[in-house]
Amino acid sequence: MPRLPLLAALLSLLAGCATTPPSPAPAPAPQPQAASEPAGMAASQPAAEVASEPQATTASEPVEVAVPTPPPSSAPRRLSEAEGRALLERLLPPKMPDRAGWTDDILDAFTALKIPYSAEYFCASAAVIEQESSWQGDPGVPGLPAIVWKAIDERASRYHVPLTVVKAALLKPSPTGASYKQRIDTLSTERQMNDLFEDMAREASNLGLPLNMRNPIRTGGPMQVSVEFAENHVRAWPYPYAKRGSVRQQVFTRRGGTYFGIANLLHYPAPYSEMIYRFADYNAGRYASRNVAFQQAVERLTGKQLSLDGDLLRYQNGRPVGTSDSQAALYTLGERLKLSREAMLRDLQQEKMSGFGNSETYKRVFALADAAAGKPLPRAALPQIRLKSPKITRKLTTEWFAERVNGRYQTCLARRP
């Protein structure tokens, strides 16, 4: 087989390999545990999420930014930066790598995002960092070369290309001077893997590859934050640090990954009284916990069993398509809600934003459901999403993730003055 067509084929194989679970993680993501816990979810095994298919099944989430209000239990006045630093230093684990550096990065992110300094918000951020990376700025991935080669081999076999032929083709020097094969063989961290794919994407035209080839790695850094989220966030809120390279590259630094992770966790108006629902949203997508409670209310009113995943619409390539089970069930309530399908669809299209909670569809569904139950129903519930990855050998869910992070959160709060 000619060299250039082979390289084109195998680089497209690389673009399709998957090594970790969906996100958050987060990869998403999204927690030291048993070796069977998935990369990106076990604190001992973080890893960047890699897209296994070119199209998304969930929404391409818009970024809504808002400074959260101080928690009810926080000090009666806003703390100064010096007071915030003293509080954060008290809350962080006594034994952790580069404690001073982490303190600076977390405090700088809070200051830039204008998030109130509080034990609750500091501990929420620390709990996610500890769960996702165990305080590693550039998380390592055990056995990463074997994972990548296995994925390449599986994809190459579909084209009847032996792995030995693929490895020979990857002996071509890369921009670092090392061959692509050498770089795969020595991969140990997320950032190295991201840099490898970035170089492959940049060299696509020289290798006879499609010009629109994209880096398939979607999450990274110490909080396993989505690259897409980071790119959208900088359009809504100015990035506070000197930027060397792309936003994607910032995600894979400790400082940038911490900043964007904290933004994803806290920098939006979540309607929750308990932090565990923010943790679930971090893994399943913003407002997933609110939307699951809405799905439960629709279930109660219709008797139809729904997928309690927080997605009220069905998506392809980040856009709504077809009719979801939640949507179909809701439409059967049209007469009781006194709403047209068009009106309900307009409201459902806000499902990834705070505005859905103020929509007529949301308010009328809960008014009916509360009346039927004879009491106010919960306005938040944990999504029931199964986390899937080649590394997962037991049932793990978004609920598991949220509870694991919440346990770390409570441990952190116990250290507050």
UniProtKB/TrEMBL annotation:
Residues 1-17 form the signal peptide. Pfam families: DUF1615 (PF07759). Coiled coil: none annotated. Residues 21-31 have a biased composition (Pro residues). Residues 20-80 are annotated as: Disordered. Keywords: Signal. PROSITE patterns: PROKAR_LIPOPROTEIN (PS51257). This is Lipoprotein. It comes from Chitiniphilus shinanonensis.
